[in-house]
Design goal:
The protein has 406 residues and is α+β, with helices and mostly antiparallel strands. It is built from nine helices and 13 strands. The strands form three sheets. The protein has a nine-stranded antiparallel β-sheet with strand order 5-4-3-13-12-11-10-9-8, sandwiched between helices.
C-alpha cells in the first residue's frame, strides 16, 4: 500500500453564501485536554472547513458536563431549493440506529426479558430458519440460508451488539448474496448489520412488539424524542434534510416502511441530542448498564473497519496503542484522558459521528447530509474537543487535503 500526502494551508477567504448557522452567545467550550475554545472560534472553523471541503450541510453539537453547550446547523437541507438546514430538520440516521437499538436492548436486559449471553436460538420455539419470510421488504427476517449452518446456534445478544456474530455486514456483500456465519461466533470482530437484524427478530418474538413500537416506548418517549422513528412517517417529510452527493446534487428521499435495527432510524438533530444527553445522564439505562455498553468486549486488529481490497483486509498493530475495541453498540478506545466511545453512521448522502469521553463528561455529535463531510471529521474533532486519538484512518475519514491511495 502506497501513501502520498499532500498538505496545503487552510485559508479562510470569506464566509461563503449558503453556509449559515444559528446564532449563539460566545462562550468557552471545555475540551478533553483541559483547554478551551470559544464558540465563535469553533463556528468560524466549521464554516472554513465546510467551504474548503465542499460540505453542503452539517450540524455540530458539543457536550460539556453531558449537556449540549454548542448546537448549530450550517449549510443546506436542500441545496437545489435553497432550503437552509436547521437542527429541527428530519435527517436519516444511518448506523446511529445501532446506538439507539443497543440502548433498547440493555433496557430489556435490565427488565429481565433478555440475557446477553443466552443463545438467541434458545428463545425461539423452532429453528430460526423455519420461520417463514414475510415478503421482500422483510428480507432481514429471512433466515432460511442458515438451515445447513450449525455455528449460528451459539450467537448471543452480546455477540450481535459487539459485531462478533460472523455474519457479513449485509448479505448482499456475500458472493452468493446469502447469509453465512464465516467464523466461530464471539472470536473476532466483523461489523454486521445482519447481526443486529437477527437480534431484532428475536426481540420482536420475545416481546410480541415491533421494533418501532418498542423504541417509542423505551427510548423515544422517555428521552423526549418527538420526531424519531425506525419507519417513515409523513410527519417527517415537511422539513427534511436531504442528502447531497460529492457534487452537491440532492439524493431522493428514502422512505423506509419496515424497521431495521441497524439502519432505518429517522431523527432530528434536536432529538438525537436529547438521546445522547439522556443516555449519558443515566436517564435511559442505569450506570451499570452504561458501563457494560462502554466496556471493551473484543479487541479490534483490522486495518480498516470496512476493508475494500485483499491488501487492506488484514490485521495490523496500528491501533494497539489506543487498544481499539468494540463494546456493546459502541467502539471503545483509550486516551490519556480516559476512554473514548463512539458510534458513526454512513449512508448515501449522510455521514454522522458521535463520541463521548466519560471521564471528562465531554462529547460531540456531527450530523451531516453531504457525501463530503467525513473529509473534515478529523479536523472537527481536533478543534472542537482536542480529540487527536479517534482512529480516523481505520474509519477511513481521509481529510480533504490529504491523498491516500489504498
Amino acid at each position: 500500500m502506497k501513501f502520498a500526502f499532500f498538505f496545503f494551508a487552510l485559508i479562510v477567504l470569506s464566509i461563503p453564501a449558503g453556509l449559515s448557522a444559528q446564532t449563539s452567545k460566545d462562550i468557552m467550550i471545555q475540551r478533553i485536554d483541559g483547554s478551551a475554545i470559544s464558540t465563535d472560534s469553533l463556528t468560524e472553523k466549521i464554516r472554513q472547513l465546510m467551504h474548503d471541503a465542499k460540505v453542503d450541510g452539517m450540524q455540530v453539537v458539543v457536550f460539556n458536563d453531558y449537556k449540549a453547550v454548542y448546537k448549530q446547523a450550517f449549510g443546506y437541507a436542500n441545496k437545489a431549493r435553497n432550503m437552509m438546514l436547521a437542527t429541527s430538520n428530519s435527517i436519516y440516521g444511518a448506523s446511529l440506529s445501532k446506538a439507539v437499538f443497543s440502548t433498547l436492548v440493555m433496557k430489556l436486559v435490565v427488565q429481565g426479558k433478555l440475557d446477553l449471553d443466552k443463545p438467541l436460538q434458545d428463545y425461539l420455539d423452532r429453528p430460526v430458519y423455519d420461520y417463514p419470510a414475510k415478503g421482500e421488504n422483510y428480507w432481514g427476517a429471512d433466515f432460511s440460508d442458515l438451515k445447513s449452518d450449525t455455528l449460528y446456534q451459539t450467537i448471543t445478544a452480546r455477540m450481535c451488539l459487539s459485531h462478533t456474530t460472523g455474519f457479513a455486514n449485509w448479505r448482499w456483500f456475500e458472493p452468493d448474496q446469502k447469509l453465512h456465519v464465516r467464523f466461530k461466533p464471539g472470536t473476532k470482530f466483523q461489523y454486521s448489520g445482519e447481526g443486529m437484524g437477527y437480534l431484532q427478530f428475536v426481540i420482536e418474538h420475545i416481546t410480541g412488539k415491533r421494533l418501532n413500537d418498542l423504541a417509542q416506548e423505551l427510548i423515544f418517549d422517555p428521552a423526549g424524542m418527538k420526531r424519531s422513528g425506525y419507519i417513515w412517517s409523513e410527519a417527517f417529510g415537511n422539513q427534511i434534510a436531504q442528502g447531497h452527493d460529492t457534487d452537491g446534487n440532492v439524493y431522493p428521499v428514502k422512505k423506509y416502511t419496515v424497521e431495521r435495527a441497524g439502519s432505518t432510524l429517522q431523527t432530528t438533530g434536536d432529538d438525537y441530542v436529547a438521546f445522547m444527553e439522556s443516555l449519558m445522564q443515566n436517564k435511559l439505562v442505569n450506570p451499570a448498564s452504561l458501563k457494560e455498553m462502554f466496556r471493551p468486549q473484543i479487541r479490534i486488529h483490522s486495518m480498516l473497519q470496512f476493508p475494500t481490497s485483499p491488501e487492506n483486509d488484514r490485521d495490523t498493530h496500528q491501533n494497539d496503542h489506543i487498544q481499539l475495541s468494540y463494546g456493546l453498540g459502541w467502539v471503545v478506545f483509550q486516551t490519556p484522558f480516559g476512554p473514548g466511545v463512539f458510534k458513526a453512521g454512513h449512508g448515501e448522502g449522510f455521514q454522522h459521528f458521535s463520541i463521548v469521553f466519560p471521564e471528562r463528561k465531554v462529547g460531540m455529535l456531527i450530523l451531516s447530509n453531504s457525501d463530503n463531510a467525513e473529509s473534515i471529521f478529523k479536523y472537527l474533532l481536533e478543534n472542537a474537543v482536542a480529540d487527536t486519538y479517534t482512529p480516523w484512518f481505520w474509519e477511513k475519514y481521509i481529510p480533504y487535503d490529504v491523498t491516500i491511495k489504498f
